[in-house]
Amino acid sequence: MSESVQFGVAIVGCGTVGGAAAQLLTRDREVLAGRCAPAVVLRYVVDVNFDHARSLGLDEALFCTDIQKVLDDKDVHVVVELIGGQTIARDVMEKALRAGKHVVTANKALLAHAGAELYALARRQNVSIAFEASCAGGIPIIRALTGGLIANRLDALYGIVNGTCNFILTEMTTAGRSYADVLAEAQKAGLAEADPTLDVSGEDSAHKLAILASLAFGRKIDYDAIPVEGIDTLELCDVAFGQQLGYVVKLLAIASRQDDGLSLRVRPAFISKEHPLAWVSGPFNAVSVYGHATGHTMYYGRGAGGKPTASAVAADILSLAMGAWQNQFAQLKLWPDLSEKAEQLPIEAVQSRYYLRITCQDAPGVFGQIAAILGKHEISITSVLQQEPHSASAGGVPVIITTHHAREGNVRNAVAEIDALNVVKGKSVCIGIVEEYPEEL
Amino acid sequence: MSESVQFGVAIVGCGTVGGAAAQLLTRDREVLAGRCAPAVVLRYVVDVNFDHARSLGLDEALFCTDIQKVLDDKDVHVVVELIGGQTIARDVMEKALRAGKHVVTANKALLAHAGAELYALARRQNVSIAFEASCAGGIPIIRALTGGLIANRLDALYGIVNGTCNFILTEMTTAGRSYADVLAEAQKAGLAEADPTLDVSGEDSAHKLAILASLAFGRKIDYDAIPVEGIDTLELCDVAFGQQLGYVVKLLAIASRQDDGLSLRVRPAFISKEHPLAWVSGPFNAVSVYGHATGHTMYYGRGAGGKPTASAVAADILSLAMGAWQNQFAQLKLWPDLSEKAEQLPIEAVQSRYYLRITCQDAPGVFGQIAAILGKHEISITSVLQQEPHSASAGGVPVIITTHHAREGNVRNAVAEIDALNVVKGKSVCIGIVEEYPEEL
Questions:
Q1: Is residue A149's pLDDT more than 60?
Q2: Looking at the structure, do residues B263 and B209 belong to the same domain, yes or no?
Q3: Rounded distance, CA B184 to CA A278, Å?
Q4: What is the DSSP string of A151-201?
Q5: Structure confidence at residue A331 (pLDDT)
Q6: Do A49 and A118 have their domain in common?
Q7: Count H helices, E strands: chain B?
Q8: Which of A14, A183, B344, B421 has the greatest number of beta carbons closer than 10 A?
Q9: Contact (CB<8Å) B151/A36
Q10: Which residues are CB-neighbours of A391 under 8 A, at least 6 positions away?
């Protein structure tokens, strides 16, 4: 494509991200002017309602309700799908690919479920899909995995990839406020949706994990096989006990290589205050990646919001305009449509350290019974925290136990046995402790 | 290049990084096998002495002392310059480019001084120079600046880009040990060179800053116009006073956009304990980049060492094998050989907050005199820390003042006037306080 040629863009879906992307390509045109050889030109903003687009002052001449017109326009080279969801979005994306357009998308749910099929379709049509905006907003983590880190065997990836959850957990940790209390505030401040389920259930993080892990390990990931636990049942007392032990609780998207396969999981986990991920606070995101040659690298930034996500969308557009992303998409062999299925381990096979909170009667011999059950299940204790009973301990006293590495299946069996003891009240709490992944340097 | 074609590599200079890169391409071949379309094959290891290469168990059939043989071999597509320095390295690099080979290099000093000329030469020869390894070792910061962040106007970049200095400063901060003491230990542990000047003087950081700033701002940087101050004169008491005020001292490579031009500088500076860069400890590196759309993003990892740097070298090689880097190099317009000269501000024009330590006689009216001088030079005080005098204060008591934003020229003039006061003993210490760059989101 010569310098005089223009690279035409259609944005489909003009919400928060679509609007910000349209602004970046028009109002901020001078930032991008001359930055890459073919000039990038926004030709259409497609939606069914243009209230938001108008409120941003976008040029009404761009507004279009007819996707077919866009698909038929040979001066449109890339369709930017920012509709979200898996129905209309998928339909638009497939039509665009079939019409020979590149696709840029932020749609993590769709790529987590159907990425491999869509990439394969794009490949058959000799076009590309770019999706930097699908994971961790403005942080260029897709490019790190498909660019700077490609000479590594990646062994582990730990991500804080949901800003809503991280905001809530940061407040619970630093201000000692309950989950419900902080969630209500976050909703008022626009940091959490009215229906926060997708975020707080861990599902959104799992979508991103599926995408990131597929590239980190060069494997096809089965989204439905990822065990997911959210932050909605996390109790404040566990956050506080963890702090006493030197840990911070984070909703982590974890992918790690074990001898027997790959473990992918999303859940609240304790991480040492010394680990860089423990420092990531408020709505920020970060992803730690461990490579056999690089060791630990981490990528930090704003994981959501119109402008940061639009930055990723626009980087993808420019990269397609330059022909760069097409090259990665064609020549790199990490894409899930080209790779084998991952051997994903069930949650029982996870090897980790654990935090257990067991509520016991304050009676002689109780700890001995618990320790005996743990020992029987090959679980070694690293620390015990039991405080002096006080007047309110009629309902039992909490005993906090941390363990050495153990198999999660063993821990679950042990906890079930412990909870069946007469001297144990209620259900014990079990939270994984994520350790710094050992570097091989 | 079809899949059956091989991409031939010659590594020139088999030291720590060259040896690790050769190992990554041979011993770890299975990691890279099938990762990208043209297979990458190491054809030569060029050096004058192969003791190190032999100690790594590299295949002796690769060893070559004749660079001309490499340049004449049409099956060599990329020459990896890992000699270092600016004489032989430059000669090798120019010869390789003239012979039509791509060049991969980790040579920050050479690129800081002569990058624009070398890029122009490469462009004339229709080949590319890739240099991810020149800045911050295994952290893919060059790719962030030329990839994921390209849709931003970048406004500031703060880097901790020298692991030796960061190790020394971390020890001074956390263990309260003197510079000389920690340096000696670092030398014993191999974390500092026998002659540490290049590192502790700030020069190595300035080399990296010149490269990073040229890409961040799309401008040609005059290396010699970068004001550089090292950590070798930093006193422990200032580290401690800073901590009392909530700051950590780091050797920062700073590039920031001011209304009147670009300010580039390298020096020890205070940064708030709340800023992610304050958390970066030991030999780790990190670079914070502020974009008008992304806001703050940060990149963290090991900034030196054989394997992390080899990871960057090999990523560049793979990227060239795929044709990806050539595309960036040709189509992106941020390269210093294609861009205007930066308007680099002199140090006097820097706008910053400052920490001042003034040693005064413990006498009435002294503070009033100091405050009057600061006021005259348009410097507002934000905090004062003066401790009760004790028996050892015959030589004067330290008064610690922090200021609002001021022009550095004014601060320097004020300090000169203050130091000329009869009641002031010795030379005052002035350290910049770097604040979180304001995001525009």
A1: yes
A2: yes
A3: 32
A4: TS-EEEEEEE--HHHHHHHHHHHHH---HHHHHHHHHHTTSS-SS-HHHHT
A5: 93
A6: yes
A7: 16, 16
A8: A14
A9: no
A10: none
Instruction: Determine the Cα–Cα distance for residues B39 and B37; give it in Å rounded to an integer.
Output: 6
Residue corresponding to tokens 């004749």: B66
Written as one letter, the residue type at A272 is S
> What is the C-alpha to C-alpha distance for residues A172 and A32, in angstroms, rounded to an integer?
41
**Are A153 and A132 members of one domain?**
no
Q: Find out whether A247 and A433 touch, Cβ atoms under 8 Å.
A: yes
Q: What is the CATH number of the domain that holds A403?
A: 3.30.70.260
Residue A331 near residue B324, CB atoms below 8 Å: yes
Q: Do A140 and B297 touch (CB under 8 A)?
A: yes
Residue A412 has pLDDT above 80, yes or no: yes
Instruction: Report, in angstroms and rounded to the nearest whole number, the Rg of chain A calculated over CA atoms.
Output: 24
**Cα A15 from chain centre:** 21
Q: Is A302 on the interface with B (CB under 8 A)?
A: yes
Q: Place B3 in a pLDDT band, splitting at 50, 70 and 90.
A: very low
Task: Looking at the structure, tell me whether residues A329 and A388 fall in a common domain.
Answer: no
Query: How far apart are alpha carbons A143 and B20 in whole angstroms?
Result: 24
Residues A254, A256, A258, A261, CA torsion sign: positive
Same domain, A164 and A297: yes
In a domain, A57, yes or no: yes
Mean pLDDT along residues A373-388? 93
Residues 6+ apart with CB under 8 A from A403: A353, A354, A356, A374, A379, A380, A381, A382, A411
Euclidean distance between CA atoms B280 and B272, whole angstroms: 12
B148 CB neighbours in chain A (<8 A) are 132, 139-140, 143-144, 312, 315
A278-333: pLDDT as tens digits: 999 999 999 999 999 999 999 999 999 999 999 999 999 999 999 999 999 999 99
Distances (CA, A) of A300 to A248, A340, B207, B286, B295: 17, 30, 24, 10, 11
Say yes or no: A81 and A186 in one domain: no
User: Which residue, A177, A201, A173, A352, is CA-closest to A279?
Assistant: A173
Length of chain B: 441
Q: Looking at the domain assignment, is residue B189 inside a domain?
A: yes
List the single residue in A with minimal CA-CA distance to B317: A151
CA torsion through residues B225, B226, B230, B233, sign:
positive
Q: Do the Cβ atoms of A139 and A303 come closer than 8 Å?
A: yes
Q: Are residues B233 and B381 in the same domain?
A: no
Whether A191 shows a pLDDT value over 90: the answer reads no
Chain B's closest residue to A295, CA to CA, is B308
| Number of compact structural domains in chain B | 3
Considering only CA atoms, which of A219, A211, A206, A208 is closest in space to residue A262?
A: A219
- Measured in angstroms, the CA of A327 and the nearest CA of chain B are apart by 6
d(CA A52, CA A400): 51
Q: Which residue has the tokens 């310098």?
A: A3
Does A408 fall in a domain? yes
Q: Which two tokens stand for residue B288?
A: 């914070």
Which of A34, A153, A308 lies closest to B294 in CB terms? A308
Which chain B residues in 215-234 lie under 8 Å from chain A, judged by CB atoms?
A: 218
pLDDT greater at residue A189 or residue B352 = B352
Which one, of A440, A154, A212, A152, lies nearest residue B32 by Cα? A152
Give the structural domain span for B372: 349-434
Q: Are residues B292 and B400 in the same domain?
A: no
Identify whether B228 is part of a domain: yes
Question: The CATH number of the domain where A127 resides is what?
Answer: 3.40.50.720
Q: How confident is the model at residue B13 (pLDDT cuts 50, 70, 90)?
A: very high
CATH code of the domain in which B293 resides: 3.30.360.10
% chain A with pLDDT above 70: 98
The C-alpha torsion from B367 through B369 and B375 to B381, rounded to 10°, is -10
